[in-house]
Design a protein that fits this description.
Layout (H helix, E strand, L loop, with lengths): L7 H8 L3 H9 L6 H14 L5 H8 L4 E6 L5 H12 L1 H4 L2 E6 L4 H13 L4 E4 L6 H5 L5 E4 L7 E5 L1 H14 L4 E6 L9 H14 L3 E5 L6 H19 L4 E4 L3 H15 L6 E7 L2 H5 L5 E4 L2 H19 L12 E4 L2 E3 L6
Parallel strand pairs: 1-2, 1-3, 3-4, 4-5, 5-11, 6-7, 6-8, 8-9, 9-10
Antiparallel strand pairs: 10-12
Helix pairs in contact: 1-2, 5-14, 9-10, 11-12
Length: 341
C-alpha cells in the first residue's frame, strides 16, 4: 500500500503542539525554544517526515535558489568555477539554475527575467555583457565575478598582481623577450590588470616586451585560427632569442602549446609559456602548463557568503541596504610546471 504523507496535523498530534507552532518551526525556528525545536525534530525523524518543498515555497516565498549566468562552458575557467559554486550546496543549502549567455545582451536579459519569475533569491554573474548599473536595477542580491562591478558586489582575483607574477616567472626563466597576448579590455574590467601589471613590470625592470591585443573568438575553431596566427608571429619574433609568452587563460595557453608541439614534437627551449586560472586543462595538458592560479574554491565561497549576506538581510523586518557594494579581491598563486622550466 502507498505510504501516507506525514502532515503538520500528524506532527502536531504526535508532539502535542499546535499546527501554528509546527509551522513556526519550519518558517521561523528561532521563535520557539530550543527544547521545543528538539522535540519537533525528534518527531520528524520518528514519523519519517518528507518535506514538501513546493508547499514551503508557496507558503513563505523562499525558493533557496540562486541563478548563475556564465559567458559559455567552452572556457575551462567557467566550467571550473561553476563546479565550485555548485559544490557550496552542501554548506549553504542553496540550489542553482545556470544559464550560458553567449555574450548576447537580449538573451541574458531574458534569462534574468526568467530567474526572477521563478522567485530566485539572488544572482551570481560571470558574463561581461550587461553593465553593473543595469544589473543593479533589477533590485535583487547580486555578486559578480571577474567583471566590471561599480554598482554591484563582486569577488575578483588581483589581476595586476597576476600580471607581475607571470612576467617575473618568464624573466627568471631566462627569456630574452616577454610577450603578453590578451583581448582589448577597457581599464575598468578586472582582466585589464593582467596587461597593466605585465607591462609595468617589464618597463620597470628593463625587459624587452610586447603586448599583443587580439580577439581570439568564442569557439575552439576561432581560437585555433587566431592562435595559429599568433604562433606565426612568435616564430618571426624568436629567431635565436628565447621567447616568454603569457597567455590570457589556460585554455588559450593549451591551444598554443599544442600548435608548438605539433610542429616541433615537443616544447623547444626557445619557448616558455604561462597561462592564467589554474583550471584543470593546465595540469592535464600534454606538457603541464605553468599558470597564475586563481583561488577558485575561495572565489566561489566568498561569492556565496556575500550573496547570502544580502539575501538574509532582505528577510529581516527592517532590512538595511548596503551603503556601498562589497568588493573582495583575492591574491593569485603561481603554480610552476614544465612549460617554464
Amino acid at each position: 500500500m502507498a505510504k501516507k504523507n506525514v502532515t503538520f496535523a500528524d506532527i502536531a498530534e504526535y508532539t502535542g503542539f499546535s499546527k501554528t507552532t509546527i509551522s513556526r518551526y519550519f518558517n521561523n525556528p528561532d521563535s520557539i525554544t530550543v527544547e521545543n525545536q528538539e522535540k519537533i525534530a525528534n518527531a520528524l525523524e520518528v514519523l519519517d517526515y518528507k518535506e514538501n518543498k513546493l508547499a514551503r515555497v508557496m507558503a513563505n516565498g523562499k525558493t533557496e535558489m540562486v541563478g548563475v549566468i556564465i559567458p559559455n562552458l567552452y572556457m575551462h575557467y567557467y566550467s571550473d568555477i561553476l563546479d565550485h559554486i555548485i559544490s557550496t550546496y552542501e554548506e549553504y543549502g542553496y540550489k542553482f539554475i545556470v544559464f550560458a549567455g553567449n555574450e548576447d545582451a537580449d538573451v541574458e536579459r531574458k534569462y534574468i527575467n526568467e530567474l526572477l519569475a521563478y522567485k530566485t533569491e539572488g544572482l551570481i554573474i560571470l558574463s561581461h555583457t550587461l553593465s553593473s548599473k543595469e544589473l543593479s536595477e533589477y533590485n535583487i542580491p547580486i555578486v559578480t565575478i571577474e567583471r566590471e562591478d561599480e554598482y554591484v558586489c563582486s569577488v575578483n582575483t588581483d589581476n595586476y598582481m597576476g600580471g607581475i607574477q607571470a612576467a617575473t616567472v618568464l624573466a627568471k626563466s631566462g627569456c630574452d623577450i616577454l610577450i603578453h597576448a590578451n583581448a582589448d579590455f577597457p581599464e575598468y574590467v578586472p582582466a585589464y590588470g593582467r596587461i597593466k601589471g605585465f607591462r609595468e613590470f617589464c618597463e620597470s625592470n628593463g625587459f624587452e616586451h610586447r603586448i599583443i591585443i587580439k580577439d581570439f573568438g568564442g569557439s575552439f575553431e576561432e581560437n585555433l585560427a587566431e592562435m595559429t596566427k599568433l604562433f606565426n608571429e612568435l616564430e618571426e619574433i624568436s629567431n635565436d632569442r628565447k621567447v616568454g609568452i603569457f597567455m590570457p587563460n589556460d585554455t588559450h595557453a593549451n591551444i598554443l602549446l599544442n600548435i608548438i608541439v605539433k610542429k616541433y614534437g615537443t616544447l623547444p627551449d626557445k619557448y616558455k609559456i604561462i597561462g592564467f586560472d589554474n583550471s584543470p586543462v593546465a595540469r592535464e595538458a600534454v606538457i603541464p602548463i605553468t599558470t597564475v592560479g586563481q583561488q577558485v574554491d575561495k572565489i566561489a565561497e566568498e561569492a556565496m557568503e556575500i550573496l547570502l549576506m544580502q539575501i538574509n538581510e532582505r528577510k529581516k523586518r527592517r532590512p538595511k541596504p548596503l551603503a556601498s557594494p562589497i568588493h573582495k579581491v583575492l591574491t593569485p598563486i603561481i603554480v610552476r610546471r614544465e612549460t617554464t622550466k
